[in-house]
Amino acid sequence: MGPGPSGSRELVESGSTDAEDAEKPVPTAKSKCFCYITYSICYTDIQYNPFKNVISANLKVPSLLFLPRILRKEPVFNDDLPSRIICGTVVVKPNVKQFTETSAIFQDGTVLEGLDYVIFATGYTFAYPFMDDESIIKSRNNEVTLYKSILPPFLEKPTMAVIGLVQSLGSAIPTAELQARWATRVFKGLCKLPSKTTMMDDVDEKMGKKLKWYADMAF
């Protein structure tokens, strides 16, 4: 666990909290109070659980159009979250300043007492330890250069597909399934690929549009 709010390391080391990622099941005690330390899309996979009280402390500033690019992130759509916020089962809070054994102190001075669990869903680091040459995926300036965010355009033959290395507007799992379906059709010869130049032009166009809106934060 990296640097975090004051007291967070002590809580983890004492076993008072659960350090979880967004794909692992959280405790099922519906009468407990949870505090999620979240990063962007990680929270959308967790907040469906009908707990009695959920406090979400976001680590990033929301993606508002008037913010500078360095503060923007790709949007994520979730049908259930707004209604949970409206009815009060989910409460969005600023960053956590400090943890005690049973409470969380936020940067706005408010205090959450009677805290039962702290769930850390702060994302992860992209790495490819199984590849000898990461330039197949990151061919320039640490940017992911994949045609349709799936195929390395510089391979002699399309024999490799990268699935899931994309941030979609919705759930990641259905997106990855569609990527796998399309890649399979390419492997079987049912979908013909354009030239390498055309594929790189497509990559450049999409990257250019992304950089107009968001900061240069490549995987």
Automatic annotation (TrEMBL):
Keyword terms of this UniProt record: Endoplasmic reticulum, FAD, Flavoprotein, Glycoprotein, Membrane, Microsome, Monooxygenase, NADP, Oxidoreductase, Transmembrane, Transmembrane helix
Lipid bilayer topology: Single-pass membrane protein
Enzyme class of the recorded protein, top EC level: oxidoreductase
Cofactor(s) annotated in UniProt: FAD
Residue ranges of the TM segments: none
UniProt xrefs under SUPFAM superfamilies: FAD/NAD(P)-binding domain (SSF51905)
InterPro entries registered for this protein in UniProt: FAD/NAD-bd_sf (IPR036188), Flavin_mOase (IPR000960), Flavin_mOase-like (IPR020946), Flavin_mOase_3 (IPR002255), FMO-like (IPR050346)
The EC number(s) this enzyme carries: 1.-.-.-
A molecular-function term among this protein's GO annotations: N,N-dimethylaniline monooxygenase activity
Subcellular localization, as worded in the UniProt entry: Endoplasmic reticulum membrane; Microsome membrane
Region (Disordered), start-end ranges: 1-23
Coiled-coil stretches: none
Any one annotated GO CC term: endoplasmic reticulum membrane
Location, primary (coarse class): endoplasmic reticulum
Pfam families: FMO-like
The family this protein is said to belong to: Belongs to the FMO family. Belongs to the flavin monoamine oxidase family. FIG1 subfamily.
Protein name from the UniProt record: Flavin-containing monooxygenase
Lineage, top ranks: Eukaryota, Metazoa, Chordata, Craniata, Vertebrata
